Amino acid sequence: MERAQKISNFFFFSFFFLQILALPFALNHPAVSSISWDTTDWSGSVDQQWAGEYADFWFLLLLGGVPWQAFFQVQKQLSALQNTYEIVAD
After folding, report:
1. How far apart are CA 59 and CA 85, in angstroms?
2. Longest C-alpha distance within the chain, in Å?
């Protein structure tokens, strides 16, 4: 396995691991209430016109937008380092 691929895998699994590691701390924060299915503390409603915005933000939070941004930035940097040039003899 190439060095760049090893670095890429390291960053990918590090971000994934840190997301899992942060989950218990996020759920035990005083500002977070119960997330069980029988919780009825919901106050308010979502207008139909904003449903797409809420879904987009929900996926962004669920999948970790900032770590993925950083991961793909590292991918671009690593791919820039992998330029190889073929020397052709005349």
Report:
1. 40
2. 77
